[in-house]
Automatic annotation (TrEMBL):
The keyword Membrane applies. Belongs to the amino acid/polyamine transporter 2 family. Amino acid/auxin permease (AAAP) (TC 2.A.18.2) subfamily. It is found in: Cell membrane; Endomembrane system. One of its GO terms (biological process) is amino acid transport. It comes from Psophocarpus tetragonolobus. One of its GO terms (cellular component) is plasma membrane. One of its GO terms (molecular function) is symporter activity. It is a multi-pass membrane protein. InterPro entries: AA_transpt_TM (IPR013057). Residues 36-471 form the Amino acid transporter transmembrane domain. The chain crosses the membrane at residues 40-61, 68-89, 130-151, 193-214, 283-304, 324-345, 388-408, 414-434, 446-472. It comes from the Eukaryota. Carrier protein involved in proton-driven auxin influx. Mediates the formation of auxin gradient from developing leaves (site of auxin biosynthesis) to tips by contributing to the loading of auxin in vascular tissues and facilitating acropetal (base to tip) auxin transport within inner tissues of the root apex, and basipetal (tip to base) auxin transport within outer tissues of the root apex. May be involved in lateral roots and nodules formation. This is Amino acid transporter transmembrane domain-containing protein.
Length: 484
């Protein structure tokens, strides 16, 4: 009887353990971290939020520099390159087996796993990635402030019947955007941003559609298609300016497609099985296809509407004045989108710093302790004092720099140039070669190297053009006193 009881208790105990293990497997992933819940659609939302940013608004200007032949061709080329290299990069999320291999949680982790140690390539990648993420924060602050001013200016133009030039300073708007970002930056990590990404993606479609509709309407009203086969002509601008502008246009298009440096972080939100790389292939195809269609329509119809005089920012450069209420909706959508996009780009940088500091100060209550704050109807919010202080300082610094350098097109072009080749092309190509053990001098190896070198040359040209644009802008610039 005793034996029967003991066997029954043992069986019950084993069943209990089995149930606990099953529950644990439902709550945690293969590495012991909380279970990921991301899908093709949430990953696509993150990518679209990151890609269809303020860069879409400068595409009409970019096509105006390149013309009807080169403009759409270059845009299509960048979309193909971005898609292909994103696929290469997504294959490097796990080291070894694509389903059970060691997970790389960040772009830097993938670099470290494939190149090993803390060598020059790892440090260079980290520098380029995180400087670029900081630069995006600056660029988006500038873009958001311009859209906020555009709302006030369109209303001002409407009230005065176009008689008032409606000049205003951008500082107040940048500070307002910074305050909002301080609040949203306290969202602890990437996985909890899904709702903000979906909202931002909806907003990006909203203002892109409005810009497209206004462009189509203006083309119909003009009863002609503006622009030329080769873009803005020498005579309208000097030959030197034509060269600089063409190069800067490459940077603007590259900036419009930039998202590779947060792809691994987005991939780390996707549940498995199936393998994360399979999910990301689908998400990348959906996102890049949707983005390219929107970019083609917005850029081409914007150029068709305004020709060589296409503004640097389609909705805020005052190519359009009416209907003013529709412009207000479009610019409000831009601001809401940029609030979300800022967070999508900055979360990897936040996580890197916080992880590094936690490793240095493992016993610090200021760094490690989380204070639970109850929220009615929601889960308790976990406040971390270091996160609060450091992220607030980050937003303040990026806002101050935005106030110092409020040149949207030039900054966008420089960021696109600075990040495109190393993060979108070079590192994904090199990691893929290592991961798949592609023999040196094989036909595939040679093709990948040709792709990398060609993109490097484009990047150098774009960087030179954007720096030239910034230097020209600085000649008539006063810190903190730029008016629009």
């Amino acid at each position: 009887m005793v034996d029967m009881d003991s066997k029954y208790r043992e069986q019950t105990f084993n069943v209990s353990i089995g149930m606990h293990q099953q529950e644990a497997s439902k709550s945690f992933d293969d590495d012991g971290r909380p279970k990921r819940t991301g899908t093709v659609w949430t990953a696509s939302a993150h990518i679209i939020t990151a890609v269809i940013g303020s860069g879409v608004l400068s595409l009409a200007w970019a096509i105006a520099q390149l013309g009807w032949i080169a403009g759409p061709a270059v845009m299509l080329l960048f979309s193909v390159i971005t898609y292909y290299t994103s696929i290469l990069l997504s294959d490097c999320y796990r080291t070894g087996d694509p389903l059970t291999g060691k997970r790389n949680y960040t772009y830097m982790d993938a670099i470290h796993s494939n190149f090993g140690g803390s060598g020059f390539k790892v440090k260079m990648c980290g520098l380029v990635q995180y400087v670029n993420l900081f630069g995006v924060a600056v660029g988006y602050t500038i873009a958001a402030s311009i859209s906020m001013m555009a709302i006030e200016r369109s209303n001002c133009f409407h009230k005065s019947g176009g008689k008032n030039p409606c000049h205003m300073n951008s500082n107040m708007y940048m500070i307002s955007f910074g305050i909002v970002e301080i609040i949203f930056s306290q969202i602890p990590d990437f996985d909890q941003l899904w709702w903000l990404s979906i909202l931002a993606a909806v907003m990006s479609f909203t203002y892109s559609t409005i810009g497209l509709g206004l462009g189509i309407g203006k083309v119909i009203g003009n009863r002609r298609v503006g622009g030329s086969l080769t873009g803005i002509t020498v005579g309208t601008v000097t030959q030197t300016d034509k060269v600089w502008r063409t190069m800067q246009a490459l940077g603007d298009i590259a900036f419009a497609y930039s998202y590779s440096f947060i792809l691994i972080e987005i991939q780390d939100t996707v549940k498995s099985p199936p393998s994360e790389s399979k999910t990301m292939r689908k998400a990348t195809f959906i996102s890049v296809a949707v983005t390219t269609i929107f970019y083609m329509f917005c850029g081409c119809f914007g150029y068709a509407a305004f020709g060589d005089s296409s503004p640097g920012n389609l909705l805020t450069g005052f190519g359009f004045y009416n209907p003013y209420w529709l412009l207000d909706i479009a610019n409000a959508a831009i601001v809401i989108h940029l609030v979300g996009s800022y967070q999508v780009y900055c979360q990897p940088l936040f996580a890197f710093v916080e992880k590094h500091v936690a490793r240095i100060f493992p016993d610090s209550a200021f760094v490690q302790k989380e204070i639970e704050i109850p929220l009615p109807g929601f889960h308790a919010y976990k406040l971390n004092l270091f996160r609060l202080v450091w992220r607030t300082i980050f937003v303040i610094v990026s806002t101050v720099i935005s106030m110092l350098l409020p040149f949207f097109n030039d900054i966008g072009g420089l960021l696109g140039a600075f990040g495109f080749w190393p993060l979108t092309v070079y590192f994904p190509v090199e990691m893929y070669i290592i991961q798949k053990r592609i023999p040196r001098w094989s036909s595939k190896w040679i093709c990948l190297q040709i792709l990398s070198i060609s993109c490097l040359l484009m990047t150098i040209g774009a960087a030179v053009g954007s720096i030239a644009g910034i230097l020209i802008d600085l000649q008539a610039y006063k810190p903190f006193k730029t008016n629009y």
